[in-house]
Design brief:
It is built from six helices and five strands; from the N terminus they run H-H-H-H-E-E-H-H-E-E-E. With about 170 residues, it is of the alpha+beta class. It has two domains: about 90 residues, no CATH class; about 60 residues, CRO Repressor, CATH 3.30.240.20. Strands 2-1-3-4-5 form a five-stranded antiparallel sheet. Helix 3 crosses helix 4. The longest helix has 24 residues.
Length: about 170
């Protein structure tokens, strides 16, 4: 019975990662109310799929332990394999080059012009024309180089698209 809980928990974990990757999740840490409600409902709906009728402490601990183990394995695979890393996390996306927005990449990342401008201001840069290079990193951060590529700033502004189109 406990092995079944562990197996189902790992399957649910992999399903959620795949679903987020397929349907695209734009922001990872700046959750709106809608995002928060969605996550709570998904976790509630999947809980029974993981533990079934076993609502004991041991059953819950086996499910949680299985999720921790699956997460550890996946992180190690991402670290060791560039292909797996790119498949799961995507690639960096150049958003601005020498003061010009790359609109195709902005669309791919599902970042609005207003969101990009806000991110640039958070880096202390007045306007997009003053940006030499802005990149949406795989971890969701936007890195900005300005002042003739000599001033680099990196803020925790999460705007990561997890769709397979990365």
């Amino acid at each position: 019975m406990l092995v079944s809980i562990a197996f189902r928990s790992v399957v649910v974990y992999l399903f959620v990662i795949l679903a987020i990757r397929l349907f695209g999740k734009k922001e990872l840490t700046q959750l709106s109310v809608v995002d928060l409600v969605f996550i709570l409902l998904i976790s509630n709906s999947l809980q029974a799929a993981m533990v079934g009728t076993n609502t004991t402490l041991v059953g819950g601990l086996v499910a949680a332990g299985s999720l921790f183990f699956a997460n550890w394995v996946l992180k190690n695979l991402i670290y060791r394999s560039k292909k797996i890393s790119e498949t799961i996390q995507g690639n960096p996306i150049m958003l601005i080059y020498q003061g010009k927005i790359i609109h195709k990449h902005l669309e791919k990342a599902q970042i609005s012009h207003n969101e990009l401008e806000a991110a640039i201001r958070e880096h202390g840069v007045k306007n997009i024309e003053a940006v030499d290079l802005a990149i949406l990193e795989v971890d969701g951060n936007i890195s900005v180089l300005s002042s003739n590529f000599s001033r680099k700033t990196k803020k925790r502004r999460i705007h990561k698209s997890l769709s397979l189109s990365n």
